[in-house]
Amino acid sequence: MKSHEIDYKIKGHDIQFVEIELDTNETVIAEAGTMLYMKEGIDFETKMGDGSEPDKGLFGKLLSAASRKITGESIFITHFTHRGMGKSQVAFAAPYPGTIVPIDLAAMGGKIIVQRDAFLCAALGTKISLHFNQKLGAGFFSGEGFILQKLQGDGKAFIHAGGTVIEHELKGETLRVDTGCVVGFQDGIDFSVQRAGNLKSMIFGGEGLFVATLRGTGKVWLQSLPISKLINQLSPGGSNTKKEDRGGLLNSLLEQ
Fold first, then answer.
1. Is the residue at 2 inside a domain?
2. What is the DSSP annotation of 117-140?
3. Model confidence pLDDT, tens digit, residues 144-168
4. The pLDDT of residue 178
5. What is the DSSP letter of 105?
6. CATH assignment of the domain containing 64
7. What Å distances lie between residue 208 and 21, 196, 243, CA to CA?
8. Which of 38, 78, 240, 243 could be stapled to 90 by a disulfide with Cβ–Cβ 3.0 to 4.6 Å?
């Protein structure tokens, strides 16, 4: 299905939102709960599926919903359609502070891979599906980076990054990143999760137990402030509790 052609404006600085302009009968799909406002003529409907395959039967829709459940997202996607005349607007905001990145999927070869909570909204016709990392080993233990989402299509899609977004263009290079800082990458980039150094570095380094390695040619999007780090710093005890926990873990290991 060819994606609807939509116009947009990204507004704000540190805490951004995207305003989508729709012509009559144009539709944008969005993650549940992300709508900020909608103007006259906009109608919305919550559906089980992204609408990219209108002929998909009930079984296909259930499989799509199940895959979204695995990623931790809502099984429903909201469809916003302009039913009036002329043009109208609907706006979407992410659930935490950060930057919105517009992606032209056609210019990206029709496909990108993103972390499970990065998708914000997209033109109708964009397919959202589950993407399993081929290198499963460390993914089970890293807690991040194992289950990813795949966005496919030829239209506009919008992803969200916590804090500031950093874009890298890899040219046969290797980039090692904190697992939580990976927002997305172009199809063809090799993504794996590896142990972060030796035992001492893993426990006292403060960089987590695992790091993500991205290798190949294409674009990579990173975020400076993953929501998991923000939550940890705001929780009682913050980083001090983490250090105490690491010390206790090391003592336990040394006693064995």
1. no
2. T-EEEEETT-EEEEEE-S--TTHH
3. 445 788 999 999 999 999 999 999 9
4. 87
5. T
6. 3.60.160.10
7. 41, 7, 11
8. 38
